Fold:
Amino acid sequence: MKCLFVTSEAQPFAASGGLADVSGSLPHALRQRLIGCRIVMPLYESISDEMKENMRFLTSFSVPVAWRRQYCGVFETRFNGVVYYFLDNQYYFKRKGMYGHYDDAERFAFFSRAVLEMLPLIDFKPDIIHCNDWQTALVPTYYNIFYSQNDWYKGIKTVFTIHNIQYQGQYGTELYDDVFGIPPYSRWMLDFNGCVNLLKGAIESSNRITTVSPSYSWEIRDPWFSYGLESILKARAWKVRGILNGIDTVSYDPSTDPELYANYSTEDISGKAVNKRKVQAHLGLEQNAGVPLVAMVTRLVSAKGLDLVRAAFDQLMHEENIQFVILGSGDWEYESFFRSMQEKYPGRVVFCHGFLPELSRKIYAAADVFLMPSKAEPCGLAQMIALRYGTIPIVREVGGLRDSITDNENGFSFRSYDPVAMMECIRRALSEYWQRDSWKDFIKRAMECDNSWVRSATEYIRLYHEVMDEG
Structure:
């Protein structure tokens, strides 16, 4: 079976979030299980010159973008055993930043159409085209409208993954003619609330829809989570499947991670205490091995449950003998709050601004518990990384957090979006922490959890076969 993985970003070439981690890991896991998976993405200006030097030019062609045609070059390289194709157009992609430009609709309409136009020219006909998020949502729509009845393209199936339903690709209907080139008889697929909704088009036109966790697959049929698309997803519920993401367990391995002060494993976890002592010293926390260290590594936005943390923080620091470290950046109100807490509780609270990958790994290894009280969390990777490093997650039962953390087995969880519920859960975790022998067993159970991409890839392969068997 052959699969083309269509994405707007992928590690290690270009990344802005979790999609890049998925795109960099899942195709490799599929190949290990004998699925011929290749990746296609835009050739961004931000991709390093060193990586570009290893790319080989394959071909060029012109792409229809509504009423005009635009140049597209195709470059190829290999990384981690996977073939990558990069689509080049300097007008669309030779810019700073991947997203947030005034013409993103046109940029990714071009990319989506170019993906399909490219296939016969490179002589690669996939059985499955697997697309991701709104930037590639037009691929299944264009396939359905323009290519599905073409002899060369016949039989290709499309799978579309919703990583975060909040981002839907919504635009004015004037773009139908000028940018998207969608004929009037097919516009019903994308029409929604008087706008063009690219995500809706993918839901209507794909053979299967997946989400990044089983819980999220049914949460997005609820108005609280769906951002307006609940009726569409309920009507198409038969094609929606939730598959929990994984993490790169080779990269995230405390026994070999070169960023750690000391490596450790389930056979000998003593190195975790070394990391805690070193991180306390590095960040200016009080040197106390016995005090529980609570950590957060997160974007500082409301969806991550920071309103709960802010509401309960003073009570937590007054009632519990803990240290607290948070690494992240985002909304000014949360950054300001954590800066003020660092000043208020010197030696006990540290706010590290930004995202520093090396420091994040040190914090995962050093911390005793990892707080993740999200309001919404389609999958979440941080709780899985925390488990890998033997840091016990405290999570709210939502999305992928519900699917990956079982209360009092490999972590602690609470249901209500309420600071009182969160505080009660933290107290339970800290009570367990003081039972030192059982806490060591807790750490080992956490580290033994299987959150590898092998598990996820097996489920995707099963889904691909189901789709192909439908004929």
User: Anything to note?
Assistant: The longest strand covers residues 68-79.
